[in-house]
Amino acid sequence: MKQARCLAVLLLTAMTCSPRAYAASDPIVVTASGRVAGKQIDGLDVFRGIPYASPPVGSLRFRPPGPPIAWSDVRHTEPTAACPQTDWPQADVMSEDCLTLNIWTPRADRHARPVMVWIHGGAFIVGTARSSWYDGTELASRGDVVVVTLQYRLGPLGFLDLSEAGGDRFVSSGDNGLLDQIAALRWVHDNIAAFGGDPDNVTLFGESAGGLSVEALIAAPASKGLFQKAIAQSPWLYAQTRTRASRIAGQFMALTHASTVDQLQSLTSEEILAGQREMYRARFSDTAFMPVIDGVTLPEQPVESIRKGSLESVPLLIGTTLEEMRYWSAFEALSFAQRTSAQLTRQLGTISGARSSRLIDVYTGSPQNAHSGVEPILTDAIFRMPAIGFAQANSAQAPTWMYLFTYRSTSTKYELGAAHAMELPFVFGGLNRPEIVAFTGTDDRREGLKEQIQDAWINFARTGDPNHAGLPTWPKYDTKSRPTMELGTPSRLLEDPYASERGAWSGVAFDGENPSLDQLTDLIVPAP
């Protein structure tokens, strides 16, 4: 599995890190912490590796982000190290001093352009804004928008709840990664005008763990007013309860032989990552480190906050890919076909009770063919049904649009279909780069679909509405006809797609309790 994980990480984190010389003509911007020098690249002003918080190292490890340390000279911006993570192919570019962001702007002037702030995915354990997959050049150029990508602490450094072991000083440690994101948004609000952006027209967008981060930040009181619109691409699972987070913290401390937080703070980054790797193997898989419902940063599950109307929501664009779980079967070496009908019935029974047989029948046609339905069942249980639930809740409060991405990869290297993350190259571009061709294939229709998606994302960031002339009319989401834009080849408007599958889940709340994270983990990696 480690080899497959390394392959997946490498595929999604191709680096563009070569050092550059700086010229007198390079753009210089004054921020609240000091002057930064960028580089003119492809007609844009590009700034990389700007600190938005102080380094969370030493005694500040596991603590909330503090303000960036000011500097006096002009800071020449370059790609900075990724936050520490396991199975990273280039360990020499990881550092706990990683709380930085990158900016692509048509011009560092006072033009007040729409701002798009990206949060990368990676199950809250891998990923980086250094990835060439998240290069903002095409979006910024095509849309005359300012694109920002940010890094945040991952794994135990960002999402280990030490409130029980460390007391009040560490009460927020289970959500430090979210607090990093909020600190970056606050930095954007305070500084982006000098880079040609409008601090009052900010769209937050993210995929997978970044998609859940978007949902969580909609519900986080501390992020209010820092963004005005949101795009959640394939949101990953849920926040976890404090009870589960405490259990995980205890197991992590046992694996690292630490009995106090002081001892955890004295460990090297490598020792922290060794403990994280063991947590992955200890049946938690990709769900060991998640945002925590701590009552402060996250008062409750984001979807519950929306459903109750306990917060003011924002216009939302949300959706999933058609075959999300193909990513795990391709890169995580998970063989869903090996699961027996009895196993699947038992696992679904813990979630849906007596309806488990009905679920299997809807997805497979008969219980005897249960294995053929495991991937679509997991795709819907982990991604599509929770996304529909969030869209339902948000549509009662704010304009909401839903999509289903159906382009199927023609890659000859991997069997991916419309897998998780397949939409990313159509959002950011770079379709002809070798690592992206290996992922999406070379279908001639890719370019047209990319333009449709980029224009939808850009229009939504500019106006709060994704409609544009290149797509069919895209109505707002409602619970009567459930209009959903199929983004594929071709793109078309659907009403309540896969209605029978959605109906088969009737009675399952998809609220973080039913199903729970442990139940979903068991679906992903069944107990022996």
Which residues form runs of ≥5 with pLDDT under 50?
Answer: 1-21
What would CATH call the homologous superfamily?
Alpha/Beta hydrolase fold, catalytic domain
On the 0 to 100 scale, the average pLDDT is 91
**Rg (C-alpha, Å):** 22 Å
Question: Describe the biggest sheet?
Answer: 11 strands, mixed
Structure report:
The chain is an alpha/beta fold. It has a single domain (2-524), classed as 3-Layer(aba) Sandwich (Rossmann fold). 36% of the residues lie in helices and 14% in strands. The protein contains 19 helices and 14 strands. Strands 3-4-6-8-7-9-10-11-12-13-14 form an eleven-stranded mixed beta sheet, with helices on both faces. A three-stranded mixed beta sheet has the order 1-2-5, with no helix packed on it. Helix 6 (209-219) links the parallel strand 9 (197-207) and strand 10 (229-233). Mean pLDDT is 91; it is low at 1-21.
List the helices and strands and how they pair.
Blueprint: H1 2-12, E1 28-30, E2 35-37, E3 39-41, E4 44-51, E5 75-76, E6 100-105, E7 113-119, H2 137-143, E8 146-150, H3 155-159, H4 163-166, H5 176-191, E9 197-207, H6 209-219, E10 229-233, H7 242-255, H8 261-266, H9 269-284, H10 302-308, E11 316-321, H11 326-331, H12 341-352, H13 356-364, H14 374-395, E12 400-405, H15 424-428, H16 434-440, H17 446-463, E13 483-487, E14 492-495, H18 499-504, H19 517-524
Parallel strand pairs: 2-5, 7-8, 7-9, 9-10, 10-11, 11-12, 12-13
Antiparallel strand pairs: 1-2, 3-4, 4-6, 6-8, 13-14
